[in-house]
Amino acid sequence: MALHIDQFLVIMMVAVIVAIVAKYIRWPYTIVLLISGLVIAYFNVDPPFVLDKDMIFHILLPPLIFEGALHMRLKHLKENAKVISLLAIPALIISSFFVGWLIYLFTNSFMASALTFPIALLIAVIIIPTDPVSILAIYKDTKIPTKLKNIIEGESIFDDGTCLVLFAVILDLIRSGNLDLMTGIVDFLRMAIFGILLGLAVGYILFLIISKIDDKFTEVMITLIMVFGLFAMAENMGASGVFAVVMAGLILGNYGTRFAMTPSARHTLLSFWGFIVFLVNSFLFIVVGMNVDLGAVWNEIELVIFCVLALWFARGASIYLIGIILNKKGASQTLPRKWQAVMWWGGLRGAIPIALALSIPLTLDDGTLFPHRDMILAITFGVVLITLLVQGLSLKTLIGKLGFHSVSKKEAEKEEREIATLLKDTVDELIQLKEDGEISNAAYEWLIHRYGQANSQLLTELGLLVQEHGFIPREEYTYSVKETLEAKKESVKEAWEKNLIKGSVGERLLSEIDFQIQTLAVETEGSSLRTPTDILKSVTVNRANNGSQTDLETNCAICMNSIGDGCAFVKCRCGTTFHQECSDDTERCPVCIAPLGSCELK
Which of 82, 301, 323, 531 has the fewest CB atoms within 10 Å of its CB? Predict the structure, then answer.
């Protein structure tokens, strides 16, 4: 059935109510959405339409894949490449064949409707991919290590790609009746490699195009066209659309947003795709719940439960064996036991299995009905329901018992404000140099503007981290601070080359920044309990001032004199304060470059 606008609005209204309820009861949003859909279905409310392959694959799936890749750092992928590649390729393929073999044995030994091994293998490939959206929604407000989160996110995205390629190959072999193993291997490699190369090429071309454009809405529109167009183009060319979109997202997320976009454009792009994913998930999980045939699931309940148990066993075994490999003495990467427990129980299933099951055709190439299609749909819906409800609702408790703790958004925002205050120390030396007459007013204005841009970029990224995770992950924070320091270092070098500052001044500033970069590395190495604020306090200590810090709440950031009681002052959004008379001749905050005209007068 076609989707009408009034039906869509009703679904969105339900999603808004669910979002409020989920916040109140502190349950994962996607799980509450699914339960809401089941409740609607229970009261015999007809679904607005039936989900099909084109709706899920070509409209709902691409944004979910792209948004995940957009936030993924190549640095983190490289650091965790061994464990992610082991989980997403050999472990997943072996687990698929193992689960398929178990399903084949079970149906042939204990059930009247025995399955052939190709059909059993197809079921295994459908139900085995994990759902990054559901998993990360639970981890969002839990302070698990950033490295663990990166492993889980990377594995979820790449095993989706692997499973979609495996599914396409196995489905084609079943439809044609040509069950040639070598043909399947060749098709798998062709689709995966072709998709990766196509995504890299398109991503690089778009990076070059965006670097020539200075309009944030045009840049967002380009990515929107790319996501849906690239997925469709790859699928039509016989390549993997998932791998293509993931590769393009990695290029744009790691290079496009950092080197070809302004901070404002980057914030707009990430916020836009964050909203799109929220919209897609809201729609998808409610409609999935409304389309579940609970009667059909109940008819296959024995096989559904067996499939869930087989999945639990296969995932646990693969993670445990990979842990043994990685935890050998002297290994560069390790996988602690409690991380393994989180990864095992966090293997929730969601949109991808349902999309794969619904994409099974009604008939084979010879015109006969596709065998056991209704059973496959029932098993898939049942597995998704059980993993989301059982594992999803208990995962947070497990995380707490393992020693990971949650953090409130108020605490994270407080730390963000403290960091904004501490950033003032990074411009103190420029102010001192100007007062001592070692740099001209023109050099000061040029450098302070560049420093302000770097600080603004850092504050923007911190705000996005709080919005995305519910707190500021230490490793993400360290990466962002290092980028900020490197940007300031390039600004000093450029000022030196333009003869805006003397060689001695340039050497002093570069030495100071190099000291801060070294201190950052020392402060973050093996110091898991130190907060971002503690780290920045150590990094921004001015050696000339014997480690003293300037308090932006009591000192004017322009004249550096104390703001006495009864004095009128202006307070910027980053926490910086100014005498009112000092701010009259200044258009922007020297710390975060925000327009002072929009700041609060006190």
Answer: 301
